[in-house]
Amino acid sequence: MSELFKVNSLTKEYRSGGEKIYAVKELSLSLNSGDYLAIVGPSGAGKSTLLHSLGGLDSPSGGQILFKGRNIYKMKDKELSIWRNKHIGFVFQFYHLIEELNVLENITLALNLNRQKYSLKTIEDLLKYLGIEDRKKAFPSQLSGGQKQRVAFARALVCDPEVILCDEPTGNLDKDSQEKVVRLLGKLNKEKNKTVILVTHNLELAKCAKDKLFIKDGEIE
């Protein structure tokens, strides 16, 4: 497996009343293509900051994030946006679906906005893979929490990214739906060879990942 991400001394700091607060401090790690990593720690540990930094959403105060040897934060904004759209799929705790759009429209919205070509059959095949092909005309208010999260996965996967970044993806789900998401992540990693990085405070959920990284106060324990 080839090295995908190399993180060197990543630091993210904030100011609060003249005091420095570190969300992440001098953190270094390496990730290979096809890895499945769970980033575990209590609330406020810096897990989401690390995830968002890896995804090009949160510029660090110091250090580097290299993707295939290239520092992503040396890219200009437009180039970084193109890189993110091509390589990264995000799944969050809150589904961020647009209530006025049906499932199919929610998935294709970003594609249409970016004027990206796509095949309707490819999207329908993706919905079938996720087990929601019969819900493509449904609106978010007509879906269960688990179905909404699978729509969020479809939206993340529609551009066929190499990396899936998941920030507490089961936080709003019941136990049955949580288990389905866990199985889906494993399936995507094994069958589609997606690199999966999962942020969670749930140790049971973290057990499903191949590797675990424990963070506390912005540093690796």
Distance between the termini: 26 Å
Structural class: alpha/beta
Helix % is 25-40%
List the strand order in the largest sheet: 6-7-8-3-9-10
Query: Count of helical segments?
Result: 7
Give an overview of the whole structure:
With 221 residues, the protein is α/β, with parallel strands linked by helices. The protein is 34% helix and 29% strand. The chain has one domain: P-loop containing nucleotide triphosphate hydrolases (Rossmann fold). The chain has a six-stranded mixed β-sheet with strand order 6-7-8-3-9-10, sandwiched between helices. Strands 2-1-4-5 form a four-stranded antiparallel β-sheet. Helix 3 runs parallel beside helix 5, helix 4 crosses helix 5 and helix 5 packs parallel to helix 6. The longest helix is centred in the C-terminal third of the chain and has 17 residues. The protein starts with a strand and ends with a strand.
